[in-house]
Every structure is written in C-alpha cells, then in structure tokens.
Amino acid sequence: MRKAPQNIDPRLDRASIPFRLNGEGCVVSFAPHKTLLEVLREDLGLMGTKHGCELGECGTCAVLVDGKPVLSCLVLGLECEGRSVETVEGMAGPDGLHPLQKAFADLGAAQCGYCTPGFLLTAKALLEEKPKPTLPQIREALAGNICRCTGYVKIFEAVELAAAWMRGEDAAPTKESLYGFDFDESGLLPVHSPSPPAPAGGEGRGEGGSSPRRTRPPCHPEERSDEGPLSEP
Question: Is the pTM of this model over 0.70?
Fold first, then answer.
C-alpha cells in the first residue's frame, strides 16, 4: 500500500505533491480531499478530462496513471505523488494528432465528444499492450466506457484503423466509413454518393440539361404529409 504524503500543511489544509503530467514534471498544491479528476480540472486547468457519473461506472473521466487506465473520479490526487499521469491533452505530438485521434475524426467515432477523451486514452493503453488487437479484445478493453451517441461500431472501427497505422500498415477506411460520405437526412453534410445515370435523350433533366439534384426527406413537421415522413407529395 502506498504511504500518504507527509508534505501536508495542517495550517492551510493543503497538500503539495510532485508527479509527471503528460511527460513533464510538475508540482501541484490542492486540498487533500480532492480526487485526481478535480485536481486536473480545477487546479491544473486541464478540461479535457470530463466529469461523468463520478461513481466509476461510465469511463468518461478515464486517464492513464503509469500507463494504465484509471477512473480519475475514484482516485485521490494524493495517490499520484511521484507517478506518471497522462490526459488527452498529452496525446498529440510534434507531428500532429495521435493516430487514434485522427482515426476517430476521420470515421466519425466522436459525435457529442464528451466521452471521447476516456475512449482515446483507454484505447491508447490497449494498443501499447496489444499492437494487433482482435475485435473481441477491443470490445473488452472499452467495455467500461459508455457512449450515448455512436452505437460503438465507429469507435471499434477507429481503434482497428489506428492500430494498423501504428503498425506501419498502409491502411485506409472504406469510403462508406468516412464521416459525411453517405446521405445525411439533415441536409447539413455533403453528399458524396454518385448521381444516378441520366435517361437517354435528356429526359428527366432539370433546367439547362443538368441532372436532377438528390433531395432529402422532409425533416420539419410542416414539410411532412399526413401519410408519413417519407410519403410522396
């Protein structure tokens, strides 16, 4: 069992501990009752680590301590004295984004993004231990991280793609996996699907002989008919 730090000033009720943060040495002073999550956000200003359930059930607050994922809402800041802590702010390097960050962006594995830092760091620990994980191993490693948006498939695909890049493979996602490739009902994303071939003789073309534009289903109540959202006008 780790010993409690001795450098707590009883008069000020403050602790001051040294540790390594994202590869650099630092000393931080904070109230001894604070969790690592609170120290990172409130005393060090690193807002990438998110508050979630604060019960150790969602994985949103995951960081790496000595290379292993931990739930920072359940770890006292005092326990990190002399240890190495990595947050999402430390993932990108001099050459740019970490492969996991790039893969998550390319494949749309982050939507609201609130849970993404925890997923990224947990996946990073997995790939450092297992450079070529199987899909079941990825699922198991990320089982403690909850996402309310994506359905997880894009996250698993992004981890597989990043793993291939980190192994030096010339891997690329399929076009269908790229964020924004397919039809978007909101009408806000570009549509990359090829237009259907025009009928012979120019029939069915719009003004000036151009192909008709692909239309989106109505998404506002006033645009919908009584028969349903996809009924013909």
Answer: yes
CA distance 77 to 74: 10
Contacts 24+ apart (CB under 8 A), 121-124: 121/62, 121/63, 121/64, 121/69, 121/86, 121/87, 121/88, 121/91, 122/59, 122/62, 122/69, 123/159, 123/162, 124/64, 124/91, 124/98, 124/100
The DSSP call for residue 213 is P
Cα distances (angstroms) measured from residue 108 to each of 56, 97, 102, 104, 154: 26, 15, 10, 6, 7
Long-range contacts of 39-42 (CB under 8 A, 24+ apart): 39/77, 39/80, 40/72, 40/85, 40/87
Tokens 């006008």 belong to which residue? 233
Tell the burial category of 158 from Cβ atoms under 10 Å away from its Cβ (0-12, 13-18, 19+). Answer: buried
- For 162, the enclosing helix (H) or strand (E) is helix 153-166
Closest CA to 162 of 192, 117, 132: 132
Report the 10 Å Cβ neighbour count for 177.
18
Query: What's at 219, amino acid-wise?
Result: C
Consecutive H or E run containing 16: strand 14-21
* Pairing status of strand 62-65 against strand 68-71: antiparallel
E strand or H helix at 28, and its extent? strand 24-30
pLDDT, one tens digit per residue, over 121-165 is 999 999 999 999 999 999 999 999 999 988 899 999 999 999 999
Give the span between the Cα atoms of 73 and 55, in whole angstroms: 7
- Is-contact 81 74, C-beta < 8 A? no
**Cβ atoms of 144 and 59 closer than 8 Å:** yes
